[in-house]
Write a structure and sequence with these properties.
The chain folds into two domains: about 170 residues, 3-Layer(aba) Sandwich (Rossmann fold); about 90 residues, Pantoate--beta-alanine Ligase, Chain: A,domain 2. It is globular and about 55 Å long. The chain contains nine helices and nine strands. It is α/β, with parallel strands linked by helices and about 280 residues long.
Length: about 280
Amino acid sequence: MQIIQTIADLRQQTKTWRAAGKRIALVPTMGNLHEGHLQLVRTAQQQADCVITSIFVNPTQFGVGEDFAAYPRTELQDQAKLAIIRNDCLFMPSVEDMYGTNAHTQISVSHLASLHCGQFRPGHFDGVATVVCKLFNITQADCAVFGLKDFQQFAVIKAMVDDLNMPIDLIGVDTVREDNGLALSSRNSYLRDTEKQTAALLYQTLCQTRDAIIAGNRDYAALEKQAVANLSQAGFQSDYFHICNSHNLQAAKPEDTALVILVAARLGRARLIDNVYFSL
């Protein structure tokens, strides 16, 4: 596996691959890799000849008082995991190389970026869209693979790609979970052992709400209120629990048939997000 740390070196490598007619896939990550990330790489390997996995803890998607400094960084372990599954290239740029010293340009996907997590993390999705746009431009990848645990993030990136006519295919991969249903996340390391058992209730609550809707309950406001109350009783502090149209992430209407339930809640030091999406 090649380990590349500068944009110039990566561009030289991708130039060589493209000259040889190779299809290139990108898997953007912030590191501290777990099985969910590795599943993204495996999916990318099925879609392309060469896979670039990037590790970059992006400062522009963290707000004031968030965990940028404390975000878990496990570069040596990450390199070993990627080498085992034969990832082709690991791109690990510096902040200076990615942003320079006087950057002024930012990508903002209006409206979508202000909903749900955007209400509680202002500017977060602008940082995400900007760094992903940069990675797309740097790598000129043919496709990019993202996990659907952050359903809203995928929607924001898809809107950016569509609106800016970017020549890249997006591939979403279903959430990988622990045996108890807890979605794998780098921030799960913030949870104590006892909290990990409680954290599983997040997915259980999503599934219970989904099943109630499938059974015919269309009182979405009441279902959301009940879910928040159940999570609060278990020790969560909910940012939101929203039943949405999965195409536009607006509040679901009784006639909508493609739905996603989005949740973000805090448990101890961890802010956890999850979702379930389904059709009626």
